[in-house]
Amino acid sequence: MTPKYRIILASFVVSTFLMIVKFVAYYMTYSSAILTDALESIINVVASGFAFYAIYLASQPKDLNHPYGHGKIEFFSAGLEGVLIVLASIFIIFHAVQNFFNPQPLSDLPLGLGIIISGVIVNWFLGYYIEKEGIKYQSPTLIADGKHLKLDAQSGVILIAAVALVVFTKSAWVDGVASVIFALYMGWSGIKIMRKSIGGLMDETDQETLEKVVQILKNNKKSEWIDIHNLRIQHYGADLHIDCHITLPRYYNLEVVHANVHEFEDILGAEFQGNVEIFIHADPCLDDCCYYCKVQDCPIRKFPVSKNIEWNEVNLSLNQKHFIESI
């Protein structure tokens, strides 16, 4: 069993146990705040179950139908988790409003309070660990699940305060207000998770990864790498795909071109964990490239160097060689 399997399995087991305990606490207290926490736990269980399947599917090798692998299922899994969070927040608000008009007597609140505190501690540490491992393995599924568990822990803090106020003030309406406030916060968090998932499915530019790639290239720049353009980065779950065009001196033979491309790939691949797939298209230089070419003693130079092309996120992403007119 891979580390990601073990992590998500632990999340599923712990979430299932906490869900059962929280529903027992609700039926003992009839607290809307505790019900909010219990409903959130249902989402944790469902999301962890689907996340386990998503991680399994994402680990399958490439095939003819999926030449880039199955990693994008992780974005779908994270998006589903966001949808479930939003749906739960809507139900919680509906239930809390109902309780305003048909209040239920509360009982055994100190016991419920103790259960929520225990759940907060477990969820926070588990969520922190899963999110950290998700970042380590570049797994959108683990990151979303970790954020969700931490969100559950944050809800617990709010609910602890609400239940404590009910215990000391005997004001039952505080219970419903706390549920509505957190449901709104929970819904907004779910929308943000959905937004990030949709961005991944649509190959939205990952600015952080793009900046890292550009910085790596700047730090390892070779004079024979005359120009880099059409740099594109795509995430397939935990897998990273990078492709770009590199301009090399046109008098290089195929063996030298291959050596430069291979070095380019090794430099980028060494800086990322997980599976990194790099496709490099080699272009021959043109006369206009002389204006910014730094190759010393070039036997075919037509013009002196007069410009410097800054390697940044914009310039390297453009789908064109950086001719003098484009500067």
Automatic annotation (TrEMBL):
Organism superkingdom:
Bacteria
Q: What does the sequence similarity comment in the record state about its family? A: Belongs to the cation diffusion facilitator (CDF) transporter (TC 2.A.4) family.
Q: What keywords are annotated for this sequence in UniProt?
A: Membrane, Transmembrane, Transmembrane helix, Transport
Please report the name of this protein according to its UniProt entry. Answer: Cation diffusion facilitator family transporter
Q: Where is the Cation efflux protein transmembrane domain?
A: 8-202
Matches recorded under Gene3D superfamilies: Cation efflux protein transmembrane domain, Cation efflux protein, cytoplasmic domain
Return the InterPro entries for the record. Cation_efflux (IPR002524), Cation_efflux_CTD (IPR027470), Cation_efflux_CTD_sf (IPR036837), Cation_efflux_TM (IPR058533), Cation_efflux_TMD_sf (IPR027469), CDF_Transporter (IPR050291)
How does the entry describe its membrane topology?
Multi-pass membrane protein
Give TM segment ranges. 7-29, 41-58, 78-97, 109-130, 151-168, 174-191
**Cation efflux protein cytoplasmic domain spans which residues?**
206-285
A Pfam entry, by short name: Cation_efflux
Q: Where does it localize?
A: Membrane
